[in-house]
Design goal:
The chain is built from 15 helices and 13 strands. The protein is an alpha/beta fold and about 425 residues long. Strands 8-9-7-10-6-11-12-13 form an 8-stranded mixed sheet, sandwiched between helices. A hairpin with a 5-residue loop joins β8 and β9. It is elongated, with a radius of gyration of 22 Å. The chain starts with a strand and ends in a 16-residue tail after the last helix. One of its GO terms (cellular component) is cytosol. It holds the Pfam family ParA. GO terms for molecular function: ATP binding; ATP hydrolysis activity.
Amino acid sequence: MTTRILPAVGDPDAARSVSTLLSQLPDAEPAQPVTDSTQLVDTLARLAAASLDELPEVVLVHERIGPVPALELVREVALRFPAVGVVLITADASPVLFSAAMDSGARGLVTLPLGYEELASRVQAAAQWSLGVRRHLGGGAERITGPGGTVVTVSGAKGGVGATVTAVHLALAARAAGRSVALVDMDLQSGDIASYLDVQFRRSVADLASIADISPRVLQDAVYVHETGLSLLLAPAEGERGEEVTDRAARQVVSALRGRHEVVVLDCGSRLDSANAAAIEMADTALLVTTPDVVAVRAAKRTVRMWERLQVRKAEETVTLVNRHHRSTEIQPPLVQKITGTRIAGVAVPANFKELAAVVDAGRLHELDAKSTVKQALWSLAGELGLVQAAGQPGKELARAGDRGSLGLRRRTGGR
């Protein structure tokens, strides 16, 4: 039987060496190497969305892959695509690294410089394991058909532009469409989701930071189920505890939530740290919120450029939402698009804070009137981003929720 192999190797010389050896393996079908972690995950997600059978049996991860470190990438692939056997290529053959690789979900380890016999043995073992898992999944009720839920991050170009209100209503729109939704406050030092939704809960994302393997039971204990049906994972009440949440912890949290919810919305605030940078890098859609004024648009441009420098997100893979828009404003969405180089959302949220004032002050943002133009715009944005594509008839789901936000919903036309 043919074994499909997808190498993830950033260095061109190493990639050629790996491809040459793989081409000599019997019954092997090596794919063109992917050059970074983002490309690897995107490729696997695209294949998994088509069918479980489209996934390669074996993925080879080189130790110098980036921007995500190799072991973290192994863990992410193992969590999101459990029917794929992952083999780590490394120069370090120490027992410590071997143990760490196995803990991350690798099915084998090949040492550098590469040797034919060792590579063939590890690839064959990983392929056999993968085929066994697929046979098991094929006969079970919980057959894996894709990479997990859709992840959307919402970031503010600067403080006070409306990122949290946007994140909350995107989550509410998806929930009204009948989808299982997790809303995460990744603004770790000054998150306000608990205040907006009148929630008091002792657990937070910081409580998951030190856990090596987040089980469903552990995740359930940290999540607060709101009256709307949203699963809330809050920011810590003590802002200094936000430093406990590393990029590795953030990746684990996002992967765990993605595996149990159809939609995961993360409010990343306006401050970039390692945790929300990891979340933005993992997201299917990264939404950047700005207002149509010079200061905010300049901040949006700085944010986009910083994401590019840090290899977090490319400008063309970012969606910018213009909040508090008015037709008489000098800065209009097309100009924001030209300045930032991002894709502009088809919806602009109108400047009508009076609609929000009462529910914000009461901590009842979820009770915003269905006739609110702000709510209608944000729920239309949820449709544009593909968050309300419920099974069956999503329009009726939203209508039953008593919301005019279901009108004019559009499918996502771009983004990651």
